[in-house]
Design a protein that fits this description.
With 213 residues, the chain is an alpha+beta fold. It contains 4 helices and 7 strands, in the order H-E-E-E-E-E-E-E-H-H-H. 29% of the residues are buried.
């Protein structure tokens, strides 16, 4: 989004979230543990709508706020990856408990495009959260939905699926992660992305707006 050079920028509304974009490794938002939301406003509702659009455009089944550079504990899911099918689920301030069983399945991440690996996770888990309408949510999940919820929850903890890989598999993806780092640094050096201090300052600002009493 650009501003015409002939006019002064219009100050954003207090709850305006702005235009969101998918961020890739190693954007600092991906390593930052998200803070619980204390304020649900039009900015958050707009962010959720944008997150679904970004998720579908990227053919994903889940998207966490960290992946669009928001420091909030929220994620969206539609396991069909189809805006015309399945159920759109929004989880605000989620917590996980009662992990049971073990399952191994290949995972990928929209913030690590092209990178996939087998990940071991609990087969079942209980999630408690709040809906966008302020209603409490409680569900005992299993199978693919349980996996997606755990994957997105990891994002809120500043953790990627690559962090769950055993040592040998971790070494195999190390070079690919280094390539992502080189590309990210190149974009910053060319001015295509803000410097890291500016990215962190923006996260601090957003956190203060909706995560402080």
């Amino acid at each position: 989004m650009s501003v015409p050079s002939s006019s002064q920028p219009t100050p954003p509304a207090p709850d305006d979230i702005g235009t969101l974009k998918l961020v890739e490794y190693p954007h600092p938002a991906l390593f930052r543990k998200s803070k619980p939301l204390l304020k649900i406003d039009e900015g958050i509702r707009d962010a959720i709508e944008q997150m679904f659009d970004i998720m579908y455009e990227s053919q994903g089944v889940g998207l966490a706020a960290n992946q669009v550079a928001l420091p909030y504990r929220m994620f969206v899911i539609n396991v069909t990856a189809d805006p015309n099918a399945g159920e759109e689920l929004v989880f605000l301030n989620p917590t996980l408990s009662r992990p049971r069983g073990t399952a191994i399945q290949e995972e990928g991440c929209l913030s690590l495009p092209g990178l996939r690996a087998d990940v071991r996770r609990p087969e079942r888990v209980v999630v408690d959260a709040w809906s966008l309408e302020g209603e409490p949510m409680h569900a005992d999940l299993e199978g693919f939905l349980a996996r997606v919820v755990q994957h997105e929850y990891d994002h809120l903890e500043g953790r990627l699926f690559t962090d769950r890989l055993p040592e040998a598999a971790g070494l195999e993806v190390k070079r690919e992660l280094e390539l992502f780092e080189d590309m990210f640094a190149g974009k910053q050096s060319r001015g295509e992305l803000p410097d890291t201090d500016s990215l962190l300052a923006r996260l601090d600002q957003l956190e203060a707006e909706r995560c402080s009493p």
